[in-house]
Amino acid sequence: MTLLIRNGQVVTASDTYQADLLCRDGLIAAIGREFDTTGVDEVIDASGKYVFPGFIDPHVHIHLPFMGTHAKDDYVSASRAALVGGTTTLIEMICPNRQEHPERAFEHWMSHAVGRSACDFSFHMGISRFDDSTAAALRRIVAAGVASFKVFLAYQGVFGIDDTELFRTLSLARELGVIVAAHCENETLVAERQRQLIVAGKTGPEWHEPSRPMAVEAAGVAHLMTFAELTGAAVYVVHTSCRPAVEAALAARRRGVRVSLETVIPYLVLDDSYARLPDFEGAKYVMSPPIRDRSQQEFLWNAVRNGEIDCVATDHAPFDFRGQKELGRDDFTRIPNGIPSLEHRVDLLYDHGVRRGRIDPCRFVELASTRAAKTFGLFPRKGTIAVGSDADLVVYDPDYQGQFSASTHQMATDYSAFEGWPQHGRSELVTVRGRVQVRDGRFVGTHDHGEFLRRVPTHHSANKPV
Ligand code: URP
Ligand code: ZN
Ligand code: ZN
Description:
Helices cover 29% and strands 24% of the residues. The chain is an alpha/beta fold. It folds into 2 domains: 2-52 and 383-401 and 421-443, Urease, subunit C, domain 1, CATH 2.30.40.10; 55-375, Metal-dependent hydrolases (TIM Barrel), CATH 3.20.20.140. The structure holds N-(aminocarbonyl)-beta-alanine and zinc ion (ZN) (2 copies). One zinc ion binds at residues 183, 238-239.
């Protein structure tokens, strides 16, 4: 299959220029002008459009047994939503419980994806227990192509690990050159504050943020930084929501800790007023760490612009309002945590970032694609437009105008956190390894096309741990 995308404005993390892209056998075969169209199966005119590399979401939950229920999407709905929203590769968190054997969990999560995913996918291997048999199992999982781990310094008794387990995980990661993604909050403080609030009758979703204030998140980050410093492991702090958390990581970065930072789209466009919506509507906006006040939003945009934050992901964790978020109607600590946003990350980042002049198109590509590819061992196969890279391409119409709504989105949830918001810009045509999976903004692909992306560790260090 040969595809020619003509007259588009190509954007990578470093450059933007007018060019034609010739794609053959799933790869970008040539970049230039005036290609001979003999033997080309399809010519796409991208005049007036951007051509971006396929976007990468490095923090997604699809199969997620959590808080007494299961996240709503499966790979059919999630990969469709990803593609319609311009995301051609997602990295899902494998979140086993403490009793689950890591290799069985890896097989289990893989079985949900294979044959159902329309986009390419990979995993972070979640570690919720580290005993005598864990290291050997993790070595085999890394050899099978999973080059990143995930730990939770939160969710006591569910996914959370203790400090001995954290130390051993990071030590093994350093030895293998694996990067460790971490959810950082001090779980004791969360549990105690939750208990105090509930006893005081403060049971609504608006109390979720006060139960996990910024200092709780910053304490979690500082804790991880100490362990990363002493083990020498490379770490990636997921979903940073506020200045104190980011600054705790930046202070560690200045002393040589190998730390990358993620924020997620809900923090950049929502604020804590949503959690105070009446009639329990605030539950739709409960995630952890919580959405902060507006001043934090501006801080995060600045950190996103100046390079302190590396990636903008989603932390897509989809639960219905009816029947799922409602589990916490009388007690906010029982509201399943998470916001569905996989489908809308790219459009929201484009609108609130590029269109409003906060970031330029190259930085946009870096934040939503290139940096994730580099951090997680997918570059240059993914994350850029270059000869030899996979032909994962997004023809993006910056002039499209629409509206976000649960009645039209592809995600399986019964609500949209962005209901009625205007949509400015759209992924009009999306290819995955040269195959058109989205056309005119609609999914036209197949669910056997997505491939598991084997990754190799890239975070080796010659330095000895302290
Ligand atoms: O609220 C969130 N973030 N839910 C998903 C699980 C996690 O913490 O990443
Ligand atoms: Zn998390
Ligand atoms: Zn998450």
